[in-house]
Amino acid sequence: MAPPARSSQSSSPSQPSGKGEVSDLKSQLRQLAGSRAPGVDDSKRDLFKKVISYMTIGIDVSSLFGEMVMCSATSDVVLKKMCYLYVGNYAKVNPDLALLTINFLQRDCKDEDPMIRGLALRSLSSLRVPNLVEYLVGPLGSGLKDSNSYVRMVAVIGVLKLYHISSATCMDADFPSILKNLMINDCDTQVVANCLSTLQEIWTAEGSNSEEASRERDALLCKPLIYYLLNRIKEFSEWAQCLILELVAKYVPSGNNEIFDIMNLLEDRLQHANGALVLATIKVFLQLTLLMTDVHQQVYERIKAPLLTLVSSGSPEQSYAVLGHLHLLVMRAPMLFSSDYKHFYCQYNEPFYVKKLKLEMLTAIANESNTYEIVTELCEYAANVDVPIARESIRAVGKIALQQYDVNAIVDRLLQFLEMEKDYVTAETLVLVKDLLRKYPQWSHDCIAVVGNISSKNIQEPKAKAALIWMLGEYSQDMQDAPYILESLAENWDDEHSPEVRLHLLTALMKCFFKRPPESQKALGIALAAGVADFHQDVHDRALFYYRLLRYNISIAERVVNPPKQAVSVFADPQSSEIKDRIFDEFNSLSVLYQKPSYMFTDKEHRGPFEFSDELGNLSIEPDVSAQHVEADDEDLLLSTSEKGDVGFPLNGSSYSAPSYDSSKPLSASNTSSDLAILETSVHHQASASLAIDDLLGLGLSTTPAPAPPTLSLNPKAILDPGTFQQKWRQLPVSLSLELNVSPRGVAALTTPQALIMHMQGNSIHCIATGGQSPNFKFFFFAQKSEELSNFLVECIISTSSSKAQMKIKADDQNSSQAFSALFVTALSKFGML
Amino acid sequence: MISQFFILSQRGDNIVFRDYRGEVQKGSTEIFFRKVKFWKEEEQEEAQAPPVFHVDGVNYFHVKIAGLLFVATTRVNVSPSLVLELLQRIARVIKDYLGVLSEDSLRKNFVLVYELLDEVVDFGYVQTTSTEVLKSYIFNEPITVDAARIPPLGPASIFMQGSQRMPGTAVTKSVIANEPGGKKREEIFVDIIEKISVTFSSSGYILTSEIDGTIQMKSYLTGNPEIRVALNDELNIGRGGQSIYDYRSSTGSSAVILDDCNFHESVRLDSFDVDRTLSLVPPDGEFPVMNYRMTQEFKPPFRVNALIEEARNLKAEVTIKIRAEFPSNITANSIVVQMPLPKYTSRATFEIEPGAAGQMADFKEANKKIEWNLKKIVGGSEHTLRAKLTFSQESHGNIMKESGPVNMTFIIPMYNASGLQVKYLQIAKKSSTYNPYRWVRYVTQANSYVARL
């Protein structure tokens, strides 16, 4: 249907403007309306075509409504169809005139030709006029009982249309229960599929305000129905198969045998040429095996080849959609794809969005065995004429360097980039060298020798300039010219427009001053004066702050601005694992391509069935933070690049330990001065240090008051079968989620995860499943209250590479989850994890 | 579940517009077109919009086919591959009915297209995309457009150019149109289309190679007889356990080893494991019987060597050599070789081998590229292009890093690199006189054919 009237838009020369033509048509239609002359249908066809073509290009032809209806008395199917199309489009804006059509539509609904009955019923239900629904109920009812499957097919969707016009009418007529019956009894598979879509949509919409409806919705996941559909799945069209598989992915089987039965049944669906069907099958496989680590891993191996085939066959658009999913899987289990790296090499004719995904995958799967090949390939792209790809490739090389143990060769390559003397290559490389130095200070000697040769005049991009200045400040004792380069930059303060660069210049000069005071005093003076007079608030504040600090006490100033640092062990991952898991749960949906969970891009009323909205409430703080991070991720592959250089705290082990890092995160992410953050947080930290040590929870939830001493006792012999666990895990909202730092001792202890499981069992917390492999371990625990049958479920993900543990706690009794989490954390810390 | 479907011309005009659910505001076509046309990404100036994006809670999906934009919108978090697949299928169904897919044919037949759209999707839910099933619901007859004026579409369309062996009209015939004379010609087309990707290192060593193939079928047989397609006897699928890039195992044997493949819904594989035959009752219209992927070592049809040497006084010389390594009874068409040059190249003069007909070399000033066009290359021959470059500034001594890689596109009819063959095409006989035309055609195209410097 065309949008009626786009008056504001000037029509292009090839399209008629409308008015005159429409009134012409009107009079011609009038002439034909009553005529029974031979050949009149042909002239009508021509006229109708004209009307529809005007409608398509956006000319408002609604004024012809009356004439069109008058002409509709015909036995010519082609004419009828055009008329239906027209009526469906304009009935909503002409509700009064729409009444005129009811008569002939109702008559057609009783036609002896099933085709006409179906068409008429479809048009009747597409009118979208609330006043006319009373005329719809009758024909729909008989349509559902029609002997012809085409009519039933149309009628089922008609019920859904009715529901959207007037849900009350639809429910009062008891259509849903008729559909339920039809769904399991109809012999036509498309009728069955339409029943399923319709019921899903209706129950989901009703579910928010009716207990019964949400029960009905869950009943769609009952075993008999799922089996009924699965056993006939090959009789359905490929599209309906997708629908069924989407439902099956939500089904919780009662045991492993059932899981294997389903997977064996669906095995050959992986060979289908329809990518959507293959992805839907893969989703079922992945969801069913979530708690079976070994099988889950086998599934990855099994689906690799079909996915790669889909990526390389089909249109570029389809292969992008599949590649997005492959990307997700690669990110979850890079190890499993490390030998397939050649598949992720870029082809020269691929669009940017494909190459970008591939570069990210190459970065993720780089390990000892393939790094040389991957980095060599990336270096080819870095020399590419395609500038954005060249940039991405350089970042990828840097990222690989940051995640590898043997970075020797990679550092050399990065330094070679600097010799290419292409502006953008140099710019990207400088940023990376800076990050590398923060992680591997031992490389400073080699890097500085090369970086020192770069003239700051050749660097235009603020980020690169900031990186260079940071290095000049940080290593001013080793770089002969540092004070003088900084001085010339300070003297040309006005030529530098980026506040980011100015901020860095201030800090670098401070550092330089502490190390080589006589040579940089003058430059610092110039910079502070210029900074204090700066219009940018942050620059002004920082300059003033430094100035006052220096006046107060120089040695304190040094401790604040240039404290001894430890190397950054791991740069923060811009996306929390909570978000990643949610995206994984929404496999085979847009979430995967957008790389964000659906609640971030859909309105509430358009969320699909079975998405537990109550869970969102508990997440309300997280989305904001992570949304920010997602955006940051688009610009920078590393979070670090959006931070100021100075926030390179070690994650643990010094006075600037993780908590202060965490609390400075929002500040640094919003691009404000980070030195201020250091001061604030360190003061805050000192004050609360003793508290924090006593109360481990306080670290993760620094704003919540310490919980009351737990009075919870757990049942040491608690029992829960995996099926129930899985079901509960799906149903219960997250009542508490926390992130803790794992001590080095804990990291070491995880080489034998079994020990942790035994230990937790000693504390009446039982492990039901484990998964993942180094460096990411995943545990599912449960516990029960000793006095009643009330369960606590815990998902605990421990990353030894980032030394973090993330926990999600779900509980039957929400009120005691706080107390339980205290017990859980205490148990963990007794093990030496924290 | 989709909300709207529309087809836009390259200029952004609505050719077809169907709103199924009325959830997306009016004007979505303009929002979409503007977004696609002026897509911005990072520092890129001419970025290409991804096939899926969202604006104000509306998700837009699009595929480009025959210069047209096929678009769907929705507000729900649907499966992107489902919608993109659907858009492709809608295009295919329309093409089956109209014979050709072009702006002209769509404008002439939009009523028929609406008729199709009404049956394909109802209230956003896919009902059927089978050309066959749809036949009984379609009452309009297609208005044919002149196929000769239509730009070629899809890989199979190359059979329309030049080669006299194929009746050109076949690919542009509607499934419901009657032939002049009232009788339909009984025929079936099976096309083996392979896209090859090869990357040569600077020393001529093959870094990566892959063949993505498709067996495409288009049947105009009445009465839907069963068809058996026999492939090579020595055809293996999957390389159990081995690394896919392990070449050693395959050399010396005539076996074709596919990494993986998938099949159309109608294909039955009952005897596939025994004698490598596929049996199917082909539905009407065009469809891929089988898609396959192969990384087994194969002989690339062309060897490409490129060299750039710096001379004094802001000058350099480029030599590009291509050698056709396929039999001399086969000829490749429409060969284009491109090589990006350093940004500061100001001029290039060419020296094409003497006596070469149908060759043309050009320096594309705007994007600093050499473009070398060859109408045809006969198997076994070798061709060389020399170019003298003039630079506007001193190079930094790493001229190799600032030019290349060389990339190449070509089409080779009646040739396939993988060795996969249709050994026979058996059609279940209805009577002794029933002997429909069978066309089995091979074609190889370059996908990403790159030689590094």
List keywords for this structure.
heterodimer, A: about 850 residues, about 60% helix, about 5% strand, globular, disordered N terminus, B: about 450 residues, mainly beta, 5-stranded antiparallel sheet, 6 helices, transport (chain B), Adaptor_comp_med_subunit (chain B), MHD (chain B), AP_mu_sigma_su (chain B), protein transport (chain B)
Descriptive overview:
- The complex is a heterodimer of chains A (about 850) and B (about 450).
- In chain A, a hairpin with a 2-residue loop joins strand 2 (about 765-775) and strand 3.
- Chain A contains 41 helices and 5 strands.
- Residues about 1-15 and about 610-710 of chain A have low confidence and may be disordered.
- Chain A has a 5-stranded antiparallel sheet, sandwiched between helices.
- Chain A is mainly alpha-helical and about 850 residues long.
- Helix content of chain B is about 10%, strand content about 40%.
- Chain B has helices at about 30-35, 80-100, 105-110, 110-120, 130-135, 270-275; strands at about 5-10, 15-20, 50-55, 60-65, 70-75, 120, 125, 185-200, 205-220, 225-230, 235, 255-260, 260-265, 275-280, 285-295, 300-310, 315-325, 330-340, 345-350, 360-365, 370-380, 380-390, 405-415, 420-425, 435-450.
- At the A-B interface, helix 2, helix 4, helix 8, helix 11 and helix 14 of A face strand 2, strand 4, helix 2, helix 4 and strand 7 of B.
- Chain A: This is Beta-adaptin-like protein.
* Spatial sequence of strands, sheet with the most strands of chain B: 13-15-9-8-25-23-18-21-20
- Care to count the β-strands of chain A? 5
Q: Flag low-confidence runs of chain B.
A: 149-153, 160-170, 241-252
Question: If you average the pLDDT of chain B, what whole number results?
Answer: 84
**Biggest sheet statistics of chain A:** 5 strands, antiparallel
Biggest pleated sheet of chain B:
9 strands, mixed
| Overall shape of chain B | globular
Q: What is the overall number of helices of chain B?
A: 6
Which percent range fits the helix content of chain A? Answer: 55-70%
What number is the mean pLDDT of chain A? Answer: 79
| Oligomeric description of these chains | heterodimer
The two chains with the largest interface, and their residue counts, are:
A-B, 104 and 97 residues
Strand content of chain A: under 5%
Residue share in helices of chain B?
Answer: 10-25%
Protein name (chain B): MHD domain-containing protein
Subcellular location (chain B): Endomembrane system
Domain MHD (chain B): 185-452
Pfam family, one (chain B): Clat_adaptor_s
